[in-house]
Amino acid sequence: MARYRKKPVEIEAVRYDGTNRNEVAAFMGRLGKVEERKLPGPGRGMHDGIVIHTLEGDMTASVGDWIIRGVQGEFYPCKPDIFAATYEAVTG
Description:
This protein has 92 residues and is of the alpha+beta class. The protein has one domain (12-86). The protein has two helices and six strands, in the order βαβββββα. The chain has helices at 21-28, 80-86, and strands at 12-15, 33-40, 46-54, 57-62, 66-69, 75-78. It has a three-stranded antiparallel sheet. The protein has a three-stranded antiparallel sheet with strand order 2-3-4, with helices on one face. It is globular and about 45 Å long.
């Protein structure tokens, strides 16, 4: 079986902290609209989050999730643990 390695790719991202809806919307520009909403959480509770309206459909992000601009200009949310395991800060 052949093995493959993910190519190193630089991305831009902003972390949604529950108070920066406008920052997320500005980051996405005209390509996406952001709407604050209560989302179903684990168990029976509801929690703060955002719905990102994109050409690919609606995606939800919870407080703490990263919003990523992909290599083709697409946007999508990423959970903090996956973000930390996949990306590192670029300096310079």
